[in-house]
Amino acid sequence: MDNNKRKFVDKFTMFAAKLGNEIHLRSLRDAFATMMPLYILAGLAVLLNNTVFTWIFSGDTLANVQYWGTVIANGTLNVSGLLIAAMAGYYMAQNRDFKNPLSAALVSMATLVVMMPNTVNVQDVNGNLVDVAGVLPFANLGTGAMFAGIIIGLLSTEVFVKVSSIKKLQVNLGDNIPPAVGSSFNVLIPVIIVMSLFAIVSALLFNITGMNLINLITTFIQEPLRHISTGLWGCIILYSLGNMLWFFGIHQSVIYSSILEPLLIINITENIAAFNAGQEIPNIINVSQVATFGLIGGSGSTICLLIATFIIGRSLVTKNVAKLAIAPGIFNINEPVIFGYPIVYNISLIIPFVLVPAMGIFISYMATVTGFMDPCVVQIPWTTPPLLSAFLATAGDYRAVIVQAVIIILGILIYIPFVRINDKVLAKQAELENSKMQEE
């Protein structure tokens, strides 16, 4: 039985490792990680614009001050689709060991623009809808185009890297020229081929269907996938599976960062944009909501485990670990708990480790749906301490702090019986080990 269990763990570990190392998912994870400072800046700008500034200023002065936050939103959220295409292309090329990843980023960004419609329907200052040619509206560059940016960035880079590998298409000017010039000419023909190819696709789509690839991706891929994965139960299931991986010593980012988080980030960017525009908030489930209410103290909401250990823990080992882990745990860093308590291969604690975060997501969702608290509209740094994180993520809603406090209390109550079980298991293991040493 032990051998069968070991084989299962080994196979599962290998599968999870391969999934997390899959080149497209890895490239996407790296791309979003690179862009994270922009999203946090956008969230803070929107928070200041719509809360702090409104407490201090009014009238024309308020409008003038809020211009600061507006231009930050334009340079972050409103071009996020274009930026993610470039980042996805860059890291995809880098992970393919392509020597000129910057050219891949350039092609990805330009290809996304190639796939955009040349004529768009916009609203004029009087509220009338008019067709305008030769413009790139934020609707096609920003949050609404993020999924299209991801797909086009990865796809165009795959084609570009393969075409660039054909030696007959490479233009070599020799060694006596600047490296930047040599690199540019080396990919000249591949750039022309790839851009022309996607332009043909764009032209065919427009002339045959009257649509463009961005609309098609958004309508038939992004929205269905996002509603399934970032719906309440889809999110809880995927997030719980990610936390379950910790039992096998595998980082939950294999599932969370690669599959779920990109869609959750799209949701929060839409929320930030809507909040900034004074519109209805579209997404309850988003990256801030999950992190704030399902990642309290780190994966497994282990701040609850540490507090439970201080309250009823009897094992000197786990109490000492808790003392060491509480300071980083306040900032959601819980590797000392994962590997020191431990959570890895500890069957005694895996149930609350998976259950408490799922409960937090569910309770915060229901509190938002019922109108008890506001939805999360600010992407905050993941190291923001509990209670403060709830206040900031909801743009200053004190009721969210109450909800998070309730989740922490319930989490402690859930962890308590399992802490007792874990203490008994540790005591029994110590007893057996002592007996074995005496026999020897």
Description:
The chain is an all-alpha fold. It folds into 2 domains: 22-227, no CATH class; 242-439, no CATH class. The chain contains 19 helices and 2 strands. It has helices spanning 2-20, 23-56, 59-75, 80-95, 101-114, 138-141, 146-164, 179-186, 188-209, 213-229, 232-244, 256-276, 287-294, 303-312, 316-330, 335-340, 350-369, 388-393, 398-439, and strands at residues 119-123, 129-133. Strands 1-2 form a two-stranded antiparallel sheet. It is globular, with a radius of gyration of 25 Å.
Features:
about 450 residues; mainly alpha; 2 domains; two-stranded antiparallel sheet
Number of strands: 2
The largest sheet, given as strand count, sense and whether it forms a barrel, is: 2 strands, antiparallel
Measured by DSSP, the beta-strand proportion falls in under 5%
Secondary structure: helix percent: over 70%
Domain unit count: 2
Category from helices, strands and their pairing = mainly alpha
Uncertain spans, ≥5 residues at pLDDT below 50? none
Q: What's the average pLDDT?
A: 87
What is the first-to-last residue Cα distance?
Answer: 27 Å
Number of helices: 19
Helices and strands, in order, run as HHHHHEEHHHHHHHHHHHHHH
Strand order of the largest sheet: 1-2
Give me the Rg, rounded: 25 Å
Broad shape:
globular
